[in-house]
Design brief:
The protein is an alpha/beta fold. The chain has a domain of 122 residues: Rossmann fold (3-Layer(aba) Sandwich), CATH 3.40.50.1400. It contains ten helices and eight strands. The protein has a four-stranded parallel beta sheet with strand order 2-1-3-4, sandwiched between helices. α1 crosses α8, α4 runs antiparallel to α8 and α6 packs parallel to α7. The protein is globular, with a radius of gyration of 20 Å. The N and C termini lie far apart (49 Å).
Length: 354
């Protein structure tokens, strides 16, 4: 009898209950697409169940071969270090288990089509009053201290720009790198276009997506002559689920190629040469499974006042625990996360329906 495989979907986690629910909906959708496998899921930080809980559930069902897939668009610190560290530690404690790790969703034409659908939906809601040639697209990525991941967002921007025929396009980031959303949008607003579409290239909602929309409102108020349109993020688009399923099957077929040639931990990336060979470890133990909403806010607040660190504790951005000093930390257009001390307090951010 062939040994049964199990699928473990590894999410980042969020303080936003809506983001957690959306991730779980995608995980359930993946389970429906892959009925031949037992499927479970867990989070790296904040939300429950945590990753090891999902692995326990699979192991208790007799699964001994796990196909683990990161629920992330691009491979930066979380996908390259934090999740593998958790999986490796679990396997070391359970040697009877074999865990194989999938690559991130990455640049995929299905995801580009899904992104195009989200942008087209926003344009349809806005109406036909402005031509594509008079419209500028701003794609907002999560942002990381990994230039490979950041450059992938720029590639998504270019593919959407050409594919949809916009007059111009720009890329901005929610944190860690530059430009951040507000300066990026202010720059875009000065280019002379009548309409600006802001598209968060995110899988799920969360505090950062809500802040992206909030800063869009701030910039729109400064430029009332320009129409600003907010496109939705990817969420559970059917093509997103298709790509998740493909990443799982790639493990079994032996085609599971991460972009190691442009990995700053393995090759001397311009400006990041000192990070080659850094130790693989997770930095999220203190926020693992602490929950969502106010409980998570209080726990993070306590942690911030009981530890001395030289980095931001806004865990909603990729690689927020800068494992190594970011070489452009003093860049005037970033790279710290979007200001959380805006008129929107955490409760407002959690309750907004954007």
């Amino acid at each position: 009898m062939e040994e049964q495989f199990g699928v473990m979907v590894c999410g980042h986690g969020s303080r936003d209950e809506g983001a957690v629910e959306e991730f779980q909906a995608v995980a359930r959708g993946l389970k429906e697409r892959l009925p031949q496998y037992e499927t479970d899921w867990g989070f790296l930080e904040f939300a429950t169940p945590v990753i090891r809980t999902g692995l326990d559930a699979l192991r208790n069902k007799g699964i001994r071969k796990v196909l683990a897939v990161p629920g992330m668009l691009f491979a930066a610190g979380h996908a390259k270090n934090d999740i593998p560290s958790v999986l490796n530690a679990y396997q070391a404690r359970n040697p009877e288990l074999s865990i194989s790790y999938a690559r991130e969703l990455g640049i995929d034409l299905k995801l580009i089509r899904a992104a195009g659908d989200r942008v087209e939906e926003a344009l349809k809601r806005a109406g036909d009053g402005v031509s594509r040639q008079e419209t500028l697209l701003v794609v907002v990525g999560r942002g990381a201290s990994d230039p490979d991941a950041n450059s992938n967002v720029s590639k998504v921007t270019r593919m959407l720009w050409e594919g949809l025929g916009f007059g111009w396009a720009e890329t901005a980031y929610s944190g860690v790198t530059f430009p951040l959303v507000e300066p990026g949008l202010e720059h875009a607003a000065r280019l002379g276009y009548k309409r600006i579409v802001v598209f968060p290239y995110f899988l799920f909602t969360g505090i950062l997506v809500q802040r992206i929309y909030h800063y869009t409102d701030i910039v729109a108020a400064k430029f009332p002559e320009i129409e600003f349109i907010k496109a939705s993020y990817l969420n559970d688009h059917p093509l997103v689920l298709d790509v998740f399923a493909e990443r799982v099957e790639e493990i079994r077929s032996g085609v599971n190629n991460m972009n190691c040639q442009l990995c700053k931990y393995r090759e001397k990336f311009l400006g990041f040469e000192s990070e080659v060979g850094l130790r693989q470890e997770s930095h999220h133990h203190h926020v693992e499974g602490i929950g969502t909403g106010n409980a998570a806010e209080e726990s993070v607040h306590t942690h911030e006042h009981s530890h001395v660190h030289d980095h931001s504790h806004d865990h909603e951005h990729d690689d927020g625990h800068e494992h190594h000093p970011y070489p452009h930390a003093d860049h005037p257009l970033g790279p710290k996360s979007m200001d959380s001390t805006s008129p929107l307090n955490p409760e407002d951010l959690l309750s907004e329906d954007k």
